[in-house]
Amino acid sequence: MKYLTACGLAAAFCVLAGPSHAQDIEPLGDPLEEALKTGPLLPEEVLRSSALTFPSILESFQREAAARSDQLSADGAFDLMLKAETYDRLTGTFSGGYAEVGATQPLRPLGAEVFATYRLSDGTFPIYENIYNTNELGEFKVGALFSLLRDRSIDQRRFTIEDTRIAASQARLDVLLVQLNVQHEALKAYWRWVAAGNEIRVYEELLEIAQARTVGLSRQVRSGATPRIALTENEQNVIRRKTLLAEAQRNFATASNSLAYYLRDRDGRLITPTREQLPSADILDVLPDMRTLIAAGRDDILETRPELQNFRLAIQRATNKVELRRNDLQPKLDLNVELSRDFGEIGDGGPTFDSTDAIVGVTFSVPLQRREARGRLQRAEAELREMELQQQRVADRIEVELDNILTNLNAALELAELADDEVEQASAMVAAERKRFDLGAGDFFLVNLREESAADAQIRAIRADLTGRLAAAGYSAATMNLDELGLE
After folding, report:
1. Which of 3, 84, 109, 289 is deepest in the core (most CB within 10 A)?
2. Quick one: signal sequence residues (predicted)?
3. What is the per-residue pLDDT across 416-456, written as a single tens digit (0 to 9) for each?
4. d(CA 310, CA 317)
5. pLDDT tens-digit profile of 257-315?
């Protein structure tokens, strides 16, 4: 099926007025500049511009970068930690001093932590510092700490790592969602701009017909062949048609400004499109019949929509938070294992340090009331239920939107077919009435009426085409057709 081209618009109004309020396009030095120089502005050029330069898309990339940075920061909780310590007595009864260096590595399983230290002492220590003594080659110690109840399967560090990983995935989905929304709005702005430009063409041709008739009527009035009232009536038509044209020009200027919001140069400066860049109907793609496509792919659409994927990730984050809060209710039971050995000749500490020591320890603690942990758990569970209800609400909204898109597509196709027929009939009536008028059998009032009815029919055809284009843009956004949205 054809739009605009098939509806007889070009046949009925083939004279295009010269561009008004033309503006110079500033040099861009990029592919978009070349496209603007060599031909009319096409939708793919607008989509390329908005995809590469629109601020909210660029902002979403920065949010994703920030989320990835949070993920890197969370991984730092398991960084290897190196620690060194030393002290020495400069004066006093005792001369003891020591140096110690150690490394600690947190592990994810069982909330474990392994460590190793090397310590070397020299001189004499008071009895209350006897523990600092080592043999002459020092003491080497290794050990590990394990969580047996609380923090065994999850703790704040592991929760944060998983949470930031999911948040980074959500940020990637947010980029896609912003891109879909921006490209959808850019397409809508483009087709409104095209429709506004086409309406100007209709009203310009309508006005030109009335103005041309003024010349002929003036000559006939002077010769006495036509009463003056006919000239007065035609002047009224001229004023009315000028008013319609002025309103169309205002709408076009508004549509151009709206489109400039998405049409930018590589530095982000707005480019206001002009009349000269309007495409003709024959170079635009014909709107396809998509009435059966949405119904066939509804389940796939709902599965892949970024809003619902985002909610699934949000629910996963909320579930992890519930598990963390349940972990807080557990008693703290930690197992500590150490193995140490001194090397070299026996030092000032005596022979008691010349041995291999294996130590096992257990620590236990629990708040008796645990009100803080219970309160946090209840809040986390409530947030999880809230997220699940939000997911259901958004899923229902998307289904309604898909139904509306399908309804709009059906209506747009039917209205466009009717508009085509109406334009053909109105154009035929105009031609017949003009012929009758030229033969002296017609009525001047009826000629004007037929011309304006034909113009109204063409405006309705333009707007029916616009409705279909907007519905198709909505379909592309709803089904995440990245190619149609200029995102491939």
Report:
1. 3
2. 1-22
3. 778 777 777 766 766 666 666 565 555 566 667 777 778 88
4. 11
5. 999 999 998 888 999 999 999 998 777 776 666 555 555 556 677 778 899 999 999 99
Q: Establish how many alpha carbons lie within 13 A of residue 348's alpha carbon, considering only the half-sphere containing its beta carbon.
A: 18
* Category of 381 on φ-ψ map: left (φ > 0), alpha (ψ -120 to 50) or beta: alpha
pTM of the model: 0.78
Q: What is the dihedral of CA 403, 405, 408, 413, to 10 degrees?
A: -110
Q: Among 74, 51, 49, 71, which Cα is nearest to 61's?
A: 51
Residue-wise pLDDT tens digits, 123-177: 888 888 888 888 889 899 999 999 999 999 999 999 999 999 999 999 999 999 9
Tell me the pLDDT tens digit for each residue of 451-473. 777 888 888 888 888 988 888 88
Separation CA 395–CA 408 (nearest Å) = 20
Beta strands 81-88; 332-342: pairing state: unpaired
For residue 430, give the nearest of 456, 408, 409 by alpha carbon: 456
Beta strands 97-106 and 113-122 are: antiparallel
- Please give, one letter per residue, the 3-state secondary structure of the chain: CCCCCCCCHHHHCCCCCCCCCCCCCCCCCCHHHHHHHHCCCCHHHHHHHHHHHCHHHHHHHHHHHHHHHHHHHHHHHHCCEEEEEEEECCCCCCCCEEEEEEEEEECCHHHCEEEEEEEEEECCCCHHHHHHCCCCCCEEEEEEEEECECECCCCHHHHHHHHHHHHHHHHHHHHHHHHHHHHHHHHHHHHHHHHHHHHHHHHHHHHHHHHHHHHHHHHHHHHCCCCHHHHHHHHHHHHHHHHHHHHHHHHHHHHHHHHHCCCECCCCCECCCCHHHCCCHHHCCCCCCCCCHHHHCHHHHHHHCHHHHHHHHHHHHHHHHHHHHHHHCCCEEEEEEEEEEECCCCCCCCHHHCCEEEEEEEEEECCCCCHHHHHHHHHHHHHHHHHHHHHHHHHHHHHHHHHHHHHHHHHHHHHHHHHHHHHHHHHHHHHHHHHHHHCCCCCHHHHHHHHHHHHHHHHHHHHHHHHHHHHHHHHHHHCCCCCCCCCC
Cα separation values, 100 from 80, 97, 103, 259, 343, Å: 17, 10, 10, 69, 15
Query: If you average pLDDT over every residue of the chain, what do you get?
Result: 83
* pLDDT single digits (tens) 341-367: 988 888 777 787 788 889 999 999 887
Cβ pair 420, 6 in contact under 8 A: yes
pLDDT in the model for residue 2: 35
